[in-house]
Design a protein that fits this description.
Elements lengths: L6 H5 L17 H18 L4 H7 L4 H9 L18 H13 L2 H14 L1 H6 L2 H13 L4 E4 L15 E4 L5 E12 L6 E12 L2 E12 L5 E3 L13 E12 L3 E2 L5 H37 L1 E2 L2 E2 L4 H29 L6 H25 L1 H5 L5 H8 L9 H33 L12 H25 L7 H29 L8 H22 L7 H14 L12 H15 L1
Parallel strand pairs: 1-4
Antiparallel strand pairs: 2-3, 3-7, 4-5, 5-8, 6-7, 9-10
The structure holds flavin-adenine dinucleotide.
The site of flavin-adenine dinucleotide (FAD) has 21 residues, from strand 1, strand 3 and helix 14.
Length: about 575
């Protein structure tokens, strides 16, 4: 058990570090008031935002952008001494909930500016850089973009080709390259750019990634036309080109050659914001669905009376509550100075973005044909939601990260303490004790599932050793279990906190039902997954995919069966042969 390691990392060792999730974090009174004021002003501003018109025009109107600047929405996380509002991670997360509901154009432009565009400067910039840029970024005089992705480098971020060569006099870097799909690409004048720089370490020359502040006024920076997209239509997405840009050495963020870590830290933070922003939209979809289910009549009754619709509403609400619980738990961890929460943010991002996609899909289904029509915003939110599972680390990459990070921790433990140490440790089963008595059963299910996860991870390491890196379907099962476990823990902690405020079980019925239902269903899912170490379909599926790659296309066609007549003739000739 290690306090330095995060809550989820410890689950791989069978340890439940309750103090990391109990008591469920709360915002400070003063900040709650500020956030509520911002929230009210965003709701008023929302009345001026014609989301459908923006979606059709595929452009955020300049006057709205100016209004967003006047409302100081571009400086939410910038400390007050640099002209921003200085919100905490939780406060910012709460504001993003409201911004997301105003449509992707508004939410994404503000979110990308802060969550990733200038986050590197905030996290790793020096005082001179901060004083120079942060006030302009806070006022919106400068908008920011995050430039990592390239045409040949997406998920594999370490393979970028953009280069920065130090000048002979050591005064600047010459930057050349092309960055693809950059949010705010057509609006920003401040870019956080990742480029390969040649570095000599212990006499060996190699290319390593360095992070640079690149502003348009340096010259040589240009952007391509706006991309035509499925969703996020009013948000600017372009390629950004860097041609012989002279970037002063003073513009390096952090250390030369340490840019990969900077990129990962920024994305780690960005993922957190995605989580609560997704929740904002999820709540809107559920509210609309509950209302419609209570109004729309078919077969002489409200469609909401049918069990298949009830099931959808119940599932949607459990998912949304899970999003809210993990989003604010993780934000609270960051605010409380927890150092190791990379697995938690990855889980929060995968869970929330996938849950939002499901919720939008079900909301559309509940609305039937109406859901498909543009008159309602559901189809637009569904299109927008699709991107969540791709940006800032795809769901596949993050599932691998969740599993491999945890397995690494278990591997280190085994190296230090051996199998005997592990056996001694797991002799005592996982334990949780800080929950409200209402959740005695759920806490028990959580602990049983932790033991199962730890045993599965152990078996995986014993059987495959370093080869676990290539065992993606085992990684996927582990990640699924970890995702469910984090949501379970977050729900138990959050609803326990609610009951401990003095609310009776009756007054907290919705939250209690959601927690109970989710935990019980998650337990069954985990049991089922953790039983699939040997009994699974992995090799069949891999063989099938390999065969399809060999065929080069999907070849089976109905004509392969031949016609009825041909089949009759064949039968007759077969009979004749037998006779
Ligand atoms: C609208 C929009 C806005 C964006 N904004 C920004 C931005 O502001 N800044 C920025 O830098 N980037 C941005 N991106 C880029 C985005 O982050 C990438 O698209 C994303 O990281 C995925 O990279 P890719 O598109 O190259 O897909 P690829 O990496 O080519 O992946 C294709 C598929 O293969 C899967 N895959 C890849 N590797 C593995 C593996 N090892 N195991 C299993 N599956 C794997 C992926 O999960 C995915 O399903 C944006 C993209 C879009 C569409």
């Amino acid at each position: 058990m290690s306090d330095k390691n995060g809550f989820l990392r410890n689950l791989f060792l069978g340890d439940v570090l309750e103090d990391k999730v109990f008591p469920y974090p709360r915002m400070k009174e003063e900040e709650l008031e500020v956030v509520e004021m911002i929230s009210d002003s965003i709701k008023r501003f929302g009345k001026e935002v014609d989301q459908d018109a923006i979606d059709q025009a595929e452009k955020l109107p300049p006057e709205l952008l100016e209004k967003m600047k006047d409302m100081e929405l571009f400086g939410l996380i910038i400390p007050e001494e640099y002209g921003g509002m200085g919100l905490s991670v939780s406060g910012y997360a709460r504001v993003l909930e409201d911004l997301a509901v105003q449509g992707a154009a508004v939410g994404v432009t503000i979110g990308a500016h802060q969550s990733i565009g200038m986050k590197g400067l905030l996290l790793f910039g020096n005082e001179t850089q901060k004083q120079h840029y942060l006030p302009k970024l806070a006022s919106g005089e400068m908008l920011a973009g995050f430039c990592l992705t390239e045409p040949n480098s997406g998920s594999d971020a370490a393979s970028i080709r953009t280069r920065a060569e130090l000048s002979a006099d050591g005064s600047h870097y010459l930057l050349n390259g092309e960055k693809q799909f950059i949010t705010n690409g057509g609006l920003a004048d401040f870019f956080t750019v990742f480029a390969k720089t040649p570095i000599e370490e212990s006499g060996v020359k190699q290319d390593k990634i360095t992070t640079f502040i690149v502003t348009r006024d340096l010259g040589g920076v240009s952007n391509g036309p706006e991309e035509k997209k499925l969703g996020w239509k009013g948000s600017s997405t372009t390629t950004v080109y860097f041609e012989n840009v002279k970037v002063p050495v003073e513009n390096v963020i952090g250390e030369v050659g340490k840019g990969f870590k900077v990129a990962m830290e920024i994305l780690n933070n960005g993922r957190l914001s995605t989580s609560t922003a997704s929740f904002g939209v999820a709540r809107l979809m559920i509210d609309m669905s509950i209302k419609y289910a209570g109004e729309r009549k078919q077969f002489g009754q409200n469609i909401g009376r049918f069990d298949m619709i009830k099931e959808k509403i119940a599932h949607m609400s459990m998912l949304a509550y899970g999003m809210q619980c993990v989003g604010y738990l993780t934000a609270g961890l960051a605010d409380n100075g927890e150092q190791d929460y990379a697995i938690e943010t990855a889980v929060a991002k995968v869970f929330s973005t996938e849950a939002l996609w499901k919720i939008c899909d079900e909301a559309l289904q509940i609305h039937g044909g109406m859901g498909y029509i543009r008159e309602l915003p559901i189809e637009r939110f569904l299109r927008d939601a699709r991107l969540g599972v791709i940006v800032e680390g795809t769901s596949e990459i993050l599932r691998a990260l969740i599993a491999l990070e945890g397995l690494k921790t278990l591997g280190k433990f085994l190296k230090k303490h051996g199998l005997k140490g592990y056996a001694q440790k797991t002799f005592t089963p996982a334990r949780m004790g800080k929950h409200h008595p209402t959740f005695e059963k759920e806490a028990g299910l959580f602990c049983k599932s932790v033991d199962k996860l730890s045993a599965y991870a152990m078996q995986l390491l014993r059987v495959y050793k370093k080869d676990v890196i290539s065992k993606q379907l085992h990684q996927k099962r582990i990640a699924e279990a970890v995702i469910d476990l984090y949501v379970m823990a977050a729900m138990i902690a959050r609803t326990s906190a609610l009951l401990e405020t003095g609310r009776s079980k009756e007054d907290a019925t919705t939250e209690v039902y959601m927690t109970r239902s989710f935990c019980r269903m998650a337990y069954e899912r985990i049991e089922n997954l953790m039983d699939q170490f040997d009994l699974n379909h992995d090799s069949y599926l891999a063989r099938l995919a390999d065969k399809l790659y060999e065929d080069g296309a999907f070849l089976p066609k109905i004509a392969d069966l031949g016609s009825q007549e041909a089949s009759q003739t064949q039968k007759k000739s077969d009979l004749a042969t037998v006779a």
